[in-house]
């Protein structure tokens, strides 16, 4: 019997992202700008299919062909005639919606595979109009993905590197050691891994690695500017490396084409130069060009239409260095943005409150934009609640960054309507319902601005110049002079690799917990007196509960975490439990249904004392290890609290089973499309259900659907042999 965690439930929450009012307030020029940026984002987002699993592209194309010819309502009649029950057909729609929402058949939040919860998938494919019209092509598509569609062999249950899971950031014969030597090579050439994939081959008995850059240009000829000398053959540590361009080339061409059209409607020179550099980046595979575009983006203060695009977050690279493509376009929510602007203005007063010496903070706080946005488009594998970007350490440290809170995402994702309030005491539930969303708004603001936006990295550049006084700065954890730092081209991601993402999320979450105790912060968000105290309590209670819920994202077989944020929250739960003195309670109980359950409690009177002291000490350690590039110390600390075992005061392995028993599926979002009609841009909205989500995707790519699908399949076929190592007999041979 298949574990239910690998199915998406038929009653999964699906909600439309409301952006109609914000869009209608835009000028005609702003609407055109938003439209073409959205098109660029959506086409680039298709690269995520190729970054997720070997079968994702084939499943996507199969579904597109079916739904382009028959909308969900029409296809339902065919399904009934083919012998599917209404529950079976709903399961089919939910699976298809899940594939679109996650841009692949692995959950974007948790990296677990999901499979169709119906046995008659093939019967429906064969009965579809698409099959009647193109039976040979549809049968070939089905044969190429049908085994992997349902397969739950141990390695295929989750994303991972080597024997820990599936990844298409690396060829199937790569392991952690290959990722490490490739990172050393990239560092030696001052190349970023963000827009690369790694393919390991045998060249006459000698190991050869291909580093492939995402670019529209496929030839490795010399071109003007950065990257002209990076492509070619190299020898490094007795291994061969080939750096070449052309990954996702047809998709990058579309991205560049739409960006060029968006540039015509840019509001200012910063936006124009930003887009020019993005185009250069996606044309040549140049991260340096993307960094330059990001600099112009930072300078573009307070735009009405905000956007960002590229290979951004490294959560899903098992090694933690390669970025998943994402692009968003959003409209500023002025009322909410005023609160965040006040928080930015208070940042220089709040930063000294953080528990590390002044030398461990940036020399100067570069006040960023911090806006609340209503999302029009968010292309990629999932939609976050807030963002702090760019992720380039050198820019963040000395030039600045931007923060955004995605208001319409928060309104839907963190709504308490229909939520199962698991693991809470009855006495806490009403308070939790009332303050969950407001408290999370405070946490997101602090997490993004003063979490990700705080803290210095100690660096020695290529010329031997230090950004700190190594003869005076004392490590507060040892009482001795700082003895380690980042050298040359080393970055936070390249040094801390596999734990970097989760560790940094944990640091930012701790900053949020710590500073939400500040009355000035609470006042900025409109909370005073008892209301402010309730917001603090629910914020801490939410974090503790999230730490328990995080166990869903731990895989005992490989002893690995599949989601950076949830690992971070579990770590914080462990820290607060360790603090003792009755601050946090966690006990296993029997539920009213007779099944295992659990209850968490937080003593609100001890949050400002025991709780604050515990976070103070832990947060200081996190920052010190990060600032000093102390990988050994940081990893030992983080691994200690990340451990999930059945020993000690709490049996977390058994609690994990309870969490899985009572888990609730993550919501999916339906996003609108934009369409040019003469001189106007129309917003096309869809119903908030699985059918609406499906329609949004089929209509999104209908203009050049046949060519696009052919391009995707060709890209996937080219690399099919590279996945044979990890998929074994399940993957048909090349040429299928």
From TrEMBL:
Its cofactor is Zn(2+). It is found in: Cytoplasm. Binds 1 zinc ion per subunit. Zn(2+) binds at residues 447, 452, 505. GO terms for biological process: proteolysis. The active site is at 448. The keyword Iron does not apply. GO terms for molecular function: aminopeptidase activity; dipeptidyl-peptidase activity; metalloexopeptidase activity; zinc ion binding. The keyword Transport does not apply. Coiled coil: none annotated. It catalyses: Release of an N-terminal dipeptide from a peptide comprising four or more residues, with broad specificity. Also acts on dipeptidyl 2-naphthylamides. Keywords: Acetylation, Aminopeptidase, Cytoplasm, Hydrolase, Metal-binding, Metalloprotease, Protease, Zinc. It comes from the Eukaryota. Its EC number is 3.4.14.4. One of its GO terms (cellular component) is cytoplasm. Belongs to the peptidase M49 family. This is Dipeptidyl peptidase 3. It comes from Sphaeramia orbicularis (orbiculate cardinalfish).
């Amino acid at each position: 019997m298949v574990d239910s965690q690998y199915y998406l439930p038929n009653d999964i929450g699906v909600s439309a992202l409301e952006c109609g009012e914000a869009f209608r307030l835009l000028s005609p020029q702003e609407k055109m700008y938003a439209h073409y940026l959205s098109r660029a984002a959506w086409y680039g987002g298709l690269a995520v299919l190729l970054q997720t699993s070997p079968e994702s592209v084939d499943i996507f194309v199969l579904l597109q062909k079916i739904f382009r010819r028959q909308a969900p309502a029409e296809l339902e009649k065919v399904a009934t005639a083919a012998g599917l029950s209404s529950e079976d057909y709903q399961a089919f729609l939910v699976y298809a919606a899940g594939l679109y929402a996650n841009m692949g058949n692995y959950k974007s939040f948790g990296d677990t595979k999901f499979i169709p919860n119906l046995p008659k998938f093939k019967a429906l494919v064969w009965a579809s109009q698409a099959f009647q019209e193109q039976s040979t092509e549809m049968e070939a598509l089905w044969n190429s993905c049908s085994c992997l569609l349902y397969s739950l062999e141990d390695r295929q249950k989750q994303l991972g590197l080597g024997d820990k899971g599936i990844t298409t950031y690396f060829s199937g014969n790569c392991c952690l050691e290959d990722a490490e030597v490739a990172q050393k090579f990239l560092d030696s050439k001052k190349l970023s891994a963000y827009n690369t994939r790694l393919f390991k081959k045998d060249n006459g008995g000698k190991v050869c690695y291909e580093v492939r850059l995402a670019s529209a240009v496929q030839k490795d000829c010399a071109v003007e500017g950065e990257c002209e000398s990076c492509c070619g053959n190299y020898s490094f540590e007795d291994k061969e490396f080939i750096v070449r361009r052309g990954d996702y080339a047809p998709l990058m061409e579309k991205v560049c084409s739409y960006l060029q059209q968006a540039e015509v409607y840019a509001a200012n020179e910063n936006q124009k130069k930003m887009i020019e550099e993005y185009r250069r980046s996606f044309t040549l595979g140049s991260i340096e060009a993307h960094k330059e575009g990001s600099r112009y983006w930072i300078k573009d203060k307070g735009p009405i239409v905000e956007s960002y695009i590229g290979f951004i977050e490294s959560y899903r690279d098992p090694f933690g260095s390669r970025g998943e493509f994402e692009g968003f376009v959003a409209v500023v929510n002025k009322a909410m943005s005023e609160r965040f602007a006040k928080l930015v203005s208070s940042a220089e007063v709040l930063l000294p409150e953080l528990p590390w010496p002044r030398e461990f903070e940036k020399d100067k706080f570069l006040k960023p934009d911090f806006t609340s946005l209503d999302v029009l488009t968010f292309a990629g594998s999932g939609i976050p609640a807030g963002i702090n970007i760019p992720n380039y350490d050198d820019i963040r440290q000395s030039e600045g960054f931007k923060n955004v809170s995605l208001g319409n995402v928060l309104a839907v994702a963190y709504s308490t309507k229909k939520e199962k309030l698991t693991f809470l005491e009855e006495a806490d539930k009403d308070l939790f319902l009332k303050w969950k969303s407001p408290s999370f708004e405070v946490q997101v603001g602090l997490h993004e601005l003063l979490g990700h936006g705080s803290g210095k990295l100690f660096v020695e550049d290529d010329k031997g110049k230090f950004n700190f006084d190594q003869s005076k700065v004392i490590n507060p954890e040892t009482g001795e002079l700082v003895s380690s730092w980042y050298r040359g081209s080393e970055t936070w991601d390249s040094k801390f690799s596999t734990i970097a993402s989760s560790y940094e999320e944990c640091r930012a979450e701790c900053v949020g917990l710590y500073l939400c105790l500040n009355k000035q912060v609470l006042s900025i968000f409109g909370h005073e007196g008892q209301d402010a105290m309730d917001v603090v309590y629910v914020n801490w209670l939410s974090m503790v509960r999230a730490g328990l819920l995080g166990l869903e994202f731990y895989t005992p077989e490989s002893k690995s975490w599949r989601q950076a944020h949830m690992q971070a929250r579990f770590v914080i739960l462990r820290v607060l439990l360790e603090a003792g003195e009755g601050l946090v309670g966690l006990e296993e109980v029997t539920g009213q249904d007779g099944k295992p359950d659990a209850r968490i409690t937080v003593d609100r009177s001890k949050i400002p004392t025991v709780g604050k002291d515990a976070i103070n000490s832990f947060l200081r350690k996190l920052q010190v290890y990060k600032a000093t590039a102390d990988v050994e110390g940081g990893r030992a600390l983080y691994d200690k609290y990340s451990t999930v075992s059945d020993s000690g005061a709490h049996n977390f392995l058994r609690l994990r089973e309870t969490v899985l028993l009572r888990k609730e599926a993550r919501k999916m979002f339906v996003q609108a499309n934009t369409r040019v009609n003469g001189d106007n841009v129309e917003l096309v909205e869809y119903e908030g259900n699985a059918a609406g989500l499906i329609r949004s995707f089929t209509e999104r790519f209908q203009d050049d659907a046949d060519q696009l699908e052919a391009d995707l399949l060709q890209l996937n076929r080219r690399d099919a042999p590279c996945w044979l190592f990890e998929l074994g007999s399940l993957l048909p041979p090349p040429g299928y």
